[in-house]
Design goal:
Chain A: This is ATP synthase F1 complex delta/epsilon subunit N-terminal domain-containing protein. Chain A: Keywords: ATP synthesis, CF(1), Ion transport, Membrane, Transport. Chain A: Belongs to the ATPase epsilon chain family. The complex is a heterodimer of chains A (86) and B (310). Chain A is built from no helices and eight strands. With 86 residues, chain A is an all-beta fold. Chain B has two domains: 56 residues; 227 residues, Pyruvate Kinase, Chain: A, domain 1, CATH 3.40.1380.10. A five-stranded mixed sheet of chain B has the order 3-2-1-4-5, with helices on both faces. The longest helix of chain B has 82 residues. In chain B, 37% of the residues are buried. Classes of the chains: A mainly beta (86), B alpha/beta (310). At the A-B interface, strand 1, strand 5, strand 7 and strand 8 of A face helix 2, helix 5, strand 6 and helix 7 of B. Strand 5 of chain A pairs parallel with strand 6 of chain B, so a sheet runs across the interface.
Chain lengths: 86, 310
């Protein structure tokens, strides 16, 4: 099964890079879940945390304040002014 | 020891202690360049992601945004000069300020009035000394710029940005900084920050490698969440902050590199001086010895002559 390539970047550094089976993030309209093969999306991330489910069944929780989320070709970028792993 | 010798010894000692200081500053600058380059590269994934996202929104939707629309009549321009806080960096600040002056002259010739914003005490002092009005200045951040600083500066610049109003608002924002090309090449240059021309990811990142995504210019059809306008609204101020941050980081790396080069030259010059003074001191010592010998031989001759005469 295809996986998602996830980059979490903050304004001054890269926070997390890796593969994921699923990414769940909160946008202004509500939560958005992304699985491999998702259509391209550009969204504004609302304050709160995003969850990344890795192929090894680990859940990585990322706090992303004020930023955006882009999805294309199974590549997910979460870019935020301040981002940190929880 | 003769007076002349003492003068030279004194000069050698003081040059040696200066040399020690120059050498230490050179080593400090060298270690800071690496840090500055690393920080600049660490910031580039964010800059690349933002650039790509902004280009994607701007290219495929017909969204008009206040930050991207060109004003018909540009009357007011703001210029942000990113300079150093400390000297001892050779021609770094002189070159930068010359570039800034050139830009200001250019803008004035086009009939625009210029509002100045400065970073670093060198740029601030330069304009204060010349009685130019500075709208706002920041000091103490040039060597270690953080994302928060870039945000604060971005906010201050955007505060008065209003191309639609006829008189008071700022219509254009320029930024003058030193681009870090390599540790021996750093070019002062200016760029227009607003209205926005979206630049390639390669250009936006300073010295960092562009993401591999940037060579695919065709963007997929994005779905915007919640809407294209809202996404652009959220992205543009961040894009500007990120451009300011990358300029700040690039300037910081250039500053350290210039300082290292200047201190290297100073150390070499001190070495030359020490060598010259040592030679002079040796000559003086030799001259003194010769003088003493001549006096002794002359004295002995005179004594012998007077003894023979008795």
């Amino acid at each position: 099964m295809a996986t998602l390539e996830v980059n979490v970047v903050a304004a001054d550094r890269e926070v997390w890079v890796g593969e994921a089976k699923r990414v769940i993030a909160r946008t202004l309209d509500g939560e958005i879940g992304i699985l491999p093969g998702h259509e391209p999306v550009l969204g504004v991330v609302a304050d709160g945390e995003a969850r990344i489910l890795t192929p090894g069944e680990d859940t990585i929780r990322v706090k992303a304040d004020g930023g955006f989320l882009s999805v294309e070709n199974n590549r997910v970028i979460i870019a935020a002014d301040q981002a940190e792993l929880l | 020891m003769g007076a002349q010798q003492r003068v030279f010894k004194q000069k050698i000692r003081s040059t040696q202690s200066l040399r020690k200081i120059f050498k230490a500053m050179e080593l400090i600058a060298a270690s800071r360049i690496q840090k500055a380059i690393a920080r600049s590269q660490a910031a580039s994934p964010y800059a690349n992601a933002l650039t790509r996202a902004v280009s994607a929104v701007a290219s495929e939707s017909n969204v008009d945004h206040v930050l991207t629309t060109e004003s018909d009549s540009v009357k007011h321009a703001a210029v942000l000069v990113i300079g150093p806080d400390r000297g001892f960096a050779g021609a770094y600040s002189a070159n930068l300020l010359r570039e800034a002056e050139e830009l200001i002259r250019l803008l004035r010739n086009e009939g625009k009035s210029v509002d100045l914003f400065t970073i670093g005490s060198k740029a601030k002092n330069y304009y204060t000394f010349r009685d130019r009005k500075i709208e706002k200045s920041w000091t103490g951040i040039s060597e270690n710029p953080l994302a928060e600083h870039a945000r604060e500066i971005g906010e201050a610049l955007l505060e008065n940005f209003d191309p639609e109003s006829a008189d008071s608002g700022i219509d254009e924002i320029y930024i003058v900084f030193t681009r870090f090309v390599s540790s021996v090449t750093h070019d002062p240059e200016y760029r227009r920050l607003l209205p926005l021309e979206v630049v390639d990811a390669e250009e936006a990142s300073t010295g960092g490698q562009a993401g591999e995504s940037s060579d695919a210019p065709a963007f997929p059809l994005y779905e915007f969440e919640p809407s294209a306008e809202a996404v652009l609204d959220a992205l543009l101020p961040r894009y500007i902050d990120s451009r300011i941050l990358s300029a700040l980081l690039s300037a910081a790396a250039s500053e350290q590199a210039s300082r290292q080069a200047a201190m290297k030259t100073a150390t070499d010059n001190a070495d030359d001086l020490i060598k010259t003074y040592t030679r002079l001191a040796n000559t003086a010592r030799q001259a003194e010895i010769t003088q003493e010998l001549t006096e002794i031989v002359g004295g002995a001759d005179a004594l012998a002559a007077s003894a023979a005469g008795d």
